Amino acid sequence: MASEDSLPVLKILVIGPSGAGKSSLLLRYCDDQFDPESSTATIGIDFKTKKLAVHGKGYRLNIFDTAGQERYRTLSTSYYRGAHGVIVVYDISNRKSFLSLDRWIEEARSNASENAVIYLVGTKLDKVAPGGTRAVSLEEAKAFAASQEAGYCEVSAKTRTNIKQPFVDVVGEIVQRPQLLSGELAKRTASSPLDLNAGGSQASSSYCSC
Ligand SMILES: Nc1nc2c(ncn2[C@@H]2O[C@H](COP(=O)(O)OP(=O)(O)OP(=O)(O)O)[C@@H](O)[C@H]2O)c(=O)[nH]1
Ligand SMILES: [Mg+2]
């Protein structure tokens, strides 16, 4: 069985406008916590790690949480080096946040490797349903994601809705792209049996059939 240390490592970058909920998404996904009062903008870059199983295989995700505020985005292009996937986050209750996506996707395409997976996430689903006002309809968001050839999912860090889905989808897509994986990583991705119970407290025994 593969030990925790021998799991293939995938690098995922999380980008998007300030206040969209990038850090909250990661805090909920990796530590199952949520801070409704949080007003602390990320400075530079933060890092979290999490194990995930997709299609019966285990992976270690190294997830980089970037700053949305321009003044805190130091050396932002260097973040992209070696990234297998880029999750672009916006706030579905904030139209301006949606309208800024072109620029974020453009940044990702210019700096990430050609085959890197780009995936769109709409956050704060709890704020718009039921009875809340969406600033972006589901149809519009899906159409935009499709036009960018990106997957799409809506989440709430507050209620946990769909919180794991973006990571499952992104990893599922990454492993379909052998050009993205280095020789050793590709080999282990193809053959490593799943043993996520061998690890410590950060173990995530999540499975997805999608
Ligand atoms: N209701 C609700 N609020 C959320 C959700 N996700 C984030 N928030 C709130 O939105 C605010 C901004 O969230 P952050 O996660 O700090 O945003 P960020 O994208 O990391 O921002 P920068 O670090 O400045 O780029 C915080 O007050 C969060 O509590 C959510 O799913 N639902
Ligand atoms: Mg942040």
TrEMBL record:
Belongs to the small GTPase superfamily. Rab family. GO terms for biological process: protein transport. Keywords: GTP-binding, Lipoprotein, Methylation, Nucleotide-binding, Prenylation, Protein transport, Transport. It comes from Microdochium trichocladiopsis. InterPro entries: P-loop_NTPase, Rab, Small_GTP-bd, Small_GTPase. Coiled coil: none annotated. This is Rab protein. One of its GO terms (molecular function) is GTP binding. It comes from the Eukaryota.
